[in-house]
Amino acid sequence: MATSIESRAMSVSLSVGVGMLVAKWVAFLLTSSSVIFSDAAESVVHIIAVWFAWYAIRVSERPPDADHQFGHAKIGFVSAGVEGGLICIAALVIIVSAVTKLVEGVTLENVGIGTAITAGAGAVNAFLGVYLVRIGKRGRSLIVEANGQHVLTDAWTSAGAVGGLLLASWTNVLWLDPAMAILFGANIIREGVRLVYASVHGLMDRSDPELERRARQVLDDACASGTCSYHRLRVRAGGQGPHVDFHLAVDDDMIMIDAHTLATTIEERLREAIGANAEIMTHLESKTQPDGHE
User: Fold this and answer.
1) Taking a C-beta distance cutoff of 8 angstroms, is the pair 87, 191 a contact?
2) SS3 for 205?
3) What's the CATH code of the domain at 160?
4) Of the residues 203, 237, 266, the one at which a domain ends
5) Which structural domain, as residue segments, surrounds residue 24?
6) Quick check: is 262 in a domain?
7) Which of 160, 175, 203 is the endpoint of a domain?
8) Most exposed of 22, 181, 229, 281 (fewest Cβ within 10 Å)?
9) pLDDT tens-digit profile of 221-265?
10) Which pLDDT band, with edges at 50, 70 and 90, does 219 fall under?
């Protein structure tokens, strides 16, 4: 479940994003630069995506209810997919605009002030992106981490916009400005596709090999003495934390309280290995009368 820290992080991202949106469009209107337009256009999509993520983080905090008995955490994957899709749309707009500039001709104005505004916006986004990624990784929140990655992409786009604009201005080779915009549009598409890829696999409950390796290590150690064994281990990375379930087979003469204590101990060790917020389900059964499933 998302914490108040993660909710505050998304509120900060939304507030800063609005400020960056205004600054970048002012820079574009001053310079008529294609590469700054690419930065400004991406910021429009970014605001829409951040708003959705801001909403999604609050939905993910809701407890399970009658209609959503497993909670609302999977909205994090939906949020990442929406953000990735919007990024790709923005990138296509950027590329089409840049190609049009190449065909119709390029003009640049007020390069100095436009560059300064874009550089300042990029620096702010760089700090914000690092902050969001750290908060997301710490809380295992895909929503916050995906937004942080998007902000960092925005920062790199701003850096490239500044470089492209200065290069075109100093060399007077003005077609370099839309050419750089096309390159950054392609890079933005790559980031968008990556987010969509992560979203689809999350919604499809794709297994996580690293989490499974850690879980198996804990279970192998716990069952090394021969008092128990396990099978049907399933591990996946959930929207707000990993999910693990497995069958634990114990000796026939083990009383219920001892079997429960053993299962609880194993679950605690699993949480230490894969995350304190992991959801773990253990099915206890007899070694000589298993449930018949492998």
Assistant:
1) yes
2) coil
3) 1.20.1510.10
4) 203
5) 4-203
6) yes
7) 203
8) 281
9) 999 988 899 999 998 876 566 889 999 999 888 899 999 999 999
10) very high
∠ CA 157-159-164, rounded to 5°:
90
Residue 70 — φ and ψ, nearest 5°? Answer: -100, 15
Strands 228-237 and 279-286: unpaired
Give mean pLDDT, residues 154-179.
75
Q: How many domains does the chain have?
A: 2
Helix (H) or strand (E) holding 237: strand 228-237
Distance, in Å, from the CA atom of 231 to the CA atom of 268, rounded to the nearest integer, reads 18
pLDDT tens digits for range 9-35: 888 888 888 888 888 888 888 877 766
Residue 170 falls within a domain, yes or no? yes
For a pLDDT cut of 70, what percent of the chain falls above it? 91
Distance of alpha carbon 282 from alpha carbon 280, whole angstroms: 7
H-helix or E-strand containing 111?
A: helix 111-139
Q: How many CB atoms are located within 10 Å of the residue 176 CB?
A: 21
Other Cβ atoms closer than 10 A to 7:
17
The answer as to whether 130 is a domain residue is yes
Give CA–CA dist 293/31, Å, rounded: 67
Residue 291 falls within a domain, yes or no? no
pTM higher than the cut 0.70: no
- What amino acid occupies position 282? T
**CA angle (238, 242, 245) in 5-degree steps:** 110
23 with 111, same domain: the answer is: yes
Tell which residue, 155, 84, 73, 171, has the closest CA to residue 121.
155
CB 177 within 8 A of CB 35: yes
State the Rg of the chain over Cα. Answer: 25
CB 217 within 8 A of CB 265: no
Work out the angle between the directed axes of helices 111-139 and 34-60 (0-180°, nearest 10). 20
**Assign residue 205 a region: left if phi > 0, alpha if psi is -120 to 50, beta otherwise?**
left
Angstrom CA distances, 35 to 27, 39, 210, 286, stand at 11, 7, 40, 67
